[in-house]
Specification:
5 strands, globular
């Protein structure tokens, strides 16, 4: 875990960012709606992170490059999808910073938070699946990072719809 940096989100020239890790899971939509609502109400900003996880193709350079390109294209498609969702929720003016990283999910989240001192809150969606809240929520909120994470983590139940979220965010 990197050294904890002072966050500067309330100083002049800084704007508090809500970070949402985006993917194609249903619970991600709840996290996006919550983060957008909070950013809108608090005059904050929205940052969307898509992590392209590396495959096991290091010995096949051509295959690795194709897989990387496919991952970036998938990230762009997910960003377009969530841009449309933001518009349908009424948050099109909010805009969103789109960030693509390559590496292990938990490590890239930590690196991004360490690099951008305006990121103040990580918003994750919890799965409705009875097997658990999902691997990312488990790893960050209850796993090896529990108690040491550099910023607060908000976990949004995947079962909440936009009206529920608007009422609490």
């Amino acid at each position: 875990m990197p050294d904890k940096k002072k966050r500067h989100v309330f100083e002049k020239g800084h704007r508090r960012k809500f970070l949402v890790v985006v993917d194609e899971t249903p619970e991600c939509e709840s996290a996006l709606a919550f983060a957008a609502s909070r950013a809108n109400r608090t005059k904050g900003a929205l940052a969307l992170l898509y992590v392209v996880e590396p495959g096991d193709f290091q010995h096949w350079l051509g295959v690795e490059e194709v897989a990387r390109e496919e991952g970036v294209n998938k990230a762009r498609a997910v960003f377009r999808l969530f841009g449309r969702k933001l518009k349908s929720l009424g948050y099109e003016k909010l805009g969103a910073e789109e960030i693509i990283r390559e590496g292990k999910m938990d490590e890239e989240i930590i690196k991004l938070i360490d690099a951008d001192e305006d990121i103040a809150i990580l918003v994750l969606g919890a799965s409705k699946d009875p097997s658990g809240p999902g691997p990312l929520v488990s790893a960050l909120a209850a796993g090896k990072f529990a108690g040491e994470f550099p910023i607060p983590i908000t976990i949004v139940p995947g079962e909440l719809d936009h009206d529920d979220i608007k009422g609490i965010a």
